[in-house]
Design brief:
Blueprint lengths: L2 E2 L16 H15 L1 H21 L4 H18 L1 H11 L2 E2 L2 H9 L3 H28 L7 H9 L6 H20 L2 H7 L4 H14 L1 H20 L5 H19 L14
Helix pairs in contact: 1-2, 1-12, 2-3, 2-12, 3-6, 3-8, 4-5, 4-9, 4-12, 6-8, 9-10, 11-12
InterPro entries: DUF2189 (IPR018692)
Protein name: DUF2189 domain-containing protein
Keywords: Membrane, Transmembrane, Transmembrane helix
């Protein structure tokens, strides 16, 4: 049931996007998380649990696990769909609970399903590419994290690790550019996927510096979550999701709204 609460400060204010904006988005995301923590922490806990299961299943196959965790960053935006809704409701002075988030998922919005499948395919492609690179290039089996660190990351001669990073970046960059605005917009507005993706690319073209910094900041936060045995993801997941909503509002002030809209076909 949706409850009423004081609206977020200046929800309709148009704020110029600059290099400080990503930090401001994180601050606003933290405000949203503190104001309504349950949906976000439940998302974070479930994703952390999935990460633990993945680590257990691939505990002797780090060549696969390395790609799986980095590929997670590709599909993460669609997993946060419900938290964009939570932030939107707070901006309108309403508190969305888990029931509202589940209702959004049960709506089975075809646009979000299609976008999620595309992200899933991209993530799967990177997992397979990463696994192939590590297993075929490395001269020794990479079964444990220390194997990856010793024989891939810390080797003196440049090669596998640099290519692994380069290929991951080449895949992640267009995915980020396509989704940084698109998924919050699909939650917020009744627009087709093509229009949302176009708006996302336009936002990146108009603000390349801030959005590169935003991507780096997201990577740093997820890295912090991973090195805490995934426990940090319980907070990092909702924090980044809520912050991403505020990024969308600043990047697309002419289209963002605080009122629910029916999904487009």
């Amino acid at each position: 049931m949706t409850q009423t609460l004081p609206p977020a400060p200046s929800p309709n204010a148009v704020v110029p996007v600059d290099m400080i904006s990503p930090v401001r988005w994180i601050e606003k995301g933290w405000d949203d998380l503190r104001a309504n923590p349950v949906p976000g922490l439940v998302h974070g806990a479930l994703i952390t649990l999935f990460g633990w299961l993945l680590m257990w299943a691939a505990r002797e196959k780090f060549w696969l696990l390395a790609g799986a965790f980095s590929g997670f960053l590709i599909v993460a935006p669609v997993l946060a769909t419900g938290l964009y809704h939570v932030s939107r409701e707070r901006a309108a002075g309403r508190m969305a609970g888990l029931g509202d988030v589940l209702a959004l998922w049960r709506s089975f919005d075809g646009r979000l399903v299609r976008f999620g499948l595309l992200l899933g395919l991209a993530g799967t492609g990177w997992v397979l590419t990463s696994a192939g690179l590590i297993t075929l290039w490395s001269e020794v089996p990479i079964n444990k994290p220390m194997d990856f660190l010793k024989h891939v990351v810390l080797v003196r001669e440049p090669g596998l690790f640099e290519v692994w990073l380069l290929m991951g970046s080449l895949l992640a960059a267009p995915v980020f550019a396509s989704s940084v605005v698109a998924i919050p917009m699909l939650v917020d507005k009744s627009v087709p996927v093509s229009m949302a993706v176009t708006a996302s690319w336009r936002a990146v073209a108009d603000h390349p510096g801030p959005l590169v910094w935003w991507a780096v900041l997201i990577g740093m936060l997820f890295g912090m979550g991973l090195i805490t045995a995934l426990l940090g993801l319980i907070v990092v997941i909702p924090l980044v999701a809520h912050a991403s909503w505020h990024a969308y509002r600043d990047l697309c002030p002419e289209t963002s709204t605080s009122s629910p809209t029916a999904p487009a076909a």
